Amino acid sequence: MDSTEENPAKQVDIYRDTWVRFLGYANEVGEAFRALVPVSFVWGSYVVATTYVTADAVDKGKKAAKSHGDKPGKATRVAVAVVDTFVWQALASVIIPGFTINRVCAASLHLLGKTTRWPLSVRKWTTTAIGLSTIPFIITPIDRSVDYLLDSSLRKVYGEGEKHE
Predict the structure, then answer these.
(1) How many Cβ atoms from other residues are within 10 Å of residue 79's Cβ?
(2) Are residues 114 and 82 in contact, defined by beta-carbon separation less than 8 angstroms?
(3) 161 burial class (0-12, 13-18, 19+ CB within 10 angstroms)?
(4) Which of 16, 35, 97, 145 has its CB 3.0 to 4.6 Å from that of 124, i.e. a possible disulfide?
(5) pTM of the complete model
(6) What mean pLDDT do residues 99-103 have?
(7) Cα pseudo-dihedral 90, 23, 52, 165, rounded to 10
(8) Across residues 93-110, what is the average pLDDT?
(9) How open is the CA angle 82-88-92, to the nearest 5 degrees?
(10) Could you give the CA distance from residue 157 to residue 147 in angstroms, rounded to a whole number?
(11) CA dihedral angle for residue 10, residue 11, residue 16, residue 22, rounded to 10 degrees
């Protein structure tokens, strides 16, 4: 018997515990490179991140269905799992971080243009470096803020025990 069968609580979630998690950051990377690449690359990065979000939500719905078995309320439990995961991931992995990196990069490019005499290519690469280096610092505050937002709103509609995990 393998260890995941002995202790199902320790199963690996491929969307949260493996390299697949980094696909959720694709749009932040795309936004950081916006000054250097065609806009289609940026939109493509949003497709990757949104696909990740959707796949994670579907996975959580399947897990909720499996864990609930044939008990009454299965459809509601599955819907709550999918909606909670999708909304949380959409906000915490795509919308808020994408907007944040976009604005950090736009502001840095503007400020570098006003305060330096660097060539445009240097300013663009510097902006990209600033955007990429910002990503690790925004993840935890955004995640906590989205938790608070959903705990204070949507999760009150369907009860406290259904948190995004």
Answers:
(1) 13
(2) no
(3) exposed
(4) 35
(5) 0.85
(6) 98
(7) -70
(8) 97
(9) 145
(10) 15
(11) 120
